[in-house]
Design goal:
Elements (H helix, E strand, L loop, with lengths): L1 H4 L5 H13 L3 H10 L6 H13 L3 H13 L6 H14 L2 H13 L6 H13 L3 H10 L5 H13 L3 H13 L6 H14 L2 H13 L7 H13 L3 H10 L6 H13 L3 H14 L14 E5 L2 E5 L9 H17 L15 H9 L2 H12 L5 E6 L2 E6 L7 E2 L7 E2 L2 E2 L2 H6 L3
Antiparallel strand pairs: 1-2, 1-3, 3-4, 4-5, 6-7
Helix pairs in contact: 2-3, 2-4, 3-4, 4-5, 4-6, 5-6, 6-7, 6-8, 8-9, 8-10, 9-10, 10-11, 10-12, 11-12, 12-13, 12-14, 13-14, 14-15, 14-16, 15-16, 16-17, 18-20
Length: about 425
């Protein structure tokens, strides 16, 4: 390569090459160049590597690179903070997010609209809405991204009416909502059972606001109708979509089928999922996304059926022992929505290995009794208070999370009993 043959390489040319390979998603080469720079690396070099990881969703590597940056006593900048806050938001790394916010305060960095939005987004996605609102209200200037981050945060944590209030207030401030704001708005309506309001805003998107609904907006509407028990209407909406429904849309309807115990429709939906993606659809149970947990300042991510975690054997033993205890008191896992082309033992294993259960089990194994652990699933976060008695699952606002319209406890998480 021309770069290798160049006898004189300065930090600018090194940084340009690293940036180029990061943008091409060639991280092996980018990292090799990064490591070969040695003491030539400057703040721009570190920011380029960290930002590259974040943009390509390598969030764990972004945080570990920042930790290397600290070890080499390189002072981070606002750009570093924004990239790291994005990584924390997607990983649910609230403790790391708190540390970054504390660093911003200690260094007296100006929290402008750019950094402020990153903080609001991080706190919302990590479940700390009180902190998000505190940052939001302190911003002297708020753009559409700040408002959208807040609306999404309120919506995803079940504050539908508050999301609507923020949506209305944003327009009073003269800011036109964007596609992301509508995702938060519709999600809030879904989690709050606001069927009429959600339908009204969805119908106004194109005609009133000039925004053509995308796959995410249709997915929110399918979820809204499905959660409310309007499964037939949800299916009709899917068939009427001007764009092909993806696995997320079908998966949303499948979860609603489980919620409302509609086994007949669930079989039809499962067939569509398997046609779309035989591999992901073949998890033998409704769609399970990633769950993560922060233990000892390290983020551990789990996916349904994944056995790659170094402590998976211990986690599996923990879950097996728990399953035996539950079986001893007469409990059997609900396998109504597990596909029928596998044997009973495989069905029980697939139900036991939901990402959420694996993450909570790991947290219980790794955390002293009496302390709380935080689990993030599908960018929704909650805490589990560890005790020998029934474990109560609470969110960051110290109110019980609602799931299947019931109070969710760790007992229900592992047993499915309501």
């Amino acid at each position: 390569m021309l770069f290798d043959s160049n006898p004189v390489k300065n930090v600018i040319s090194w940084n340009a090459m690293i940036d180029g390979y990061c943008k091409l998603n060639q991280f092996t080469i980018a990292r090799e160049l990064f490591d070969h720079m040695g003491f030539l690396k400057n703040t721009v070099t570190w920011n380029t590597m960290i930002s590259g990881y974040v943009q390509h969703r390598e969030f764990g590597r972004a945080i570990s690179t920042f930790q290397d940056m600290q070890a080499e006593s390189v002072k981070p900048t606002v750009e570093t903070m924004v990239s790291l806050l994005s990584a924390c938001a997607h990983l649910g790394a609230l403790d790391m997010g708190y540390w970054i916010h504390g660093y911003i305060r200690r260094q007296k960095l100006k929290v402008d609209v750019y950094l402020g939005n990153a903080l609001v987004d991080m706190y919302c996605k990590c479940g700390s809405l009180e902190s998000a609102l505190d940052v939001f209200h302190r911003l002297s200037v708020k753009n559409v991204f700040c408002w959208s981050s807040l609306i999404v945060g309120l919506g995803m944590h079940g504050y539908g009416k508050q999301a609507i209030d923020a949506f209305v207030e944003m327009q009073k401030e003269g800011i036109k909502p964007d596609r992301v704001a509508f995702i938060g708005l519709l999600s809030g309506c879904s989690h709050s059972g606001l069927v009429y309001e959600g339908g009204q805003y969805f119908s106004q998107m194109h005609g009133v606001y000039g925004i053509k609904p995308g796959i995410e907006h249709y997915g929110c509407m399918v979820d809204l109708l499905g959660r409310s028990g309007l499964l037939t209407k949800a299916l009709e909406l899917i068939w009427s979509m001007p764009i092909a429904p993806n696995a997320a849309v079908w998966g949303s309807l499948l979860r609603s089928c489980q919620l409302h115990k509609d086994t007949k429709l669930s079989e039809q939906v499962t067939e569509h999922l398997l046609k779309l993606d035989p591999v992901d659809g073949g998890n033998y149970v409704f769609i399970e996304w990633c769950s993560s947990i922060e233990v000892g300042n390290v983020i551990h991510e789990f996916v349904a059926g994944d056995t790659s975690h170094p402590q998976f054997a211990q986690i599996n033993t923990f879950l097996e022992e728990l399953a035996k205890k539950l079986s001893g008191i007469g409990h059997k896992p609900d396998m109504t929505f597990v596909l029928h082309d596998i044997n009973e033992e495989e069905k029980e294993t697939s139900v036991r290995h939901h990402s959420e259960k694996i993450a909570v089990a790991f947290g219980l194994m790794s955390t002293p009794e009496g302390k709380s652990i935080r689990v993030v699933k599908n960018l929704r976060s909650y805490s589990v208070v560890v005790s020998n008695e029934q474990l109560e699952v609470i969110d960051e606002q110290n109110r019980t999370i609602k799931k299947k319209n019931e109070d969710l406890s760790a007992w229900q998480l592992f047993t499915g009993i309501n």
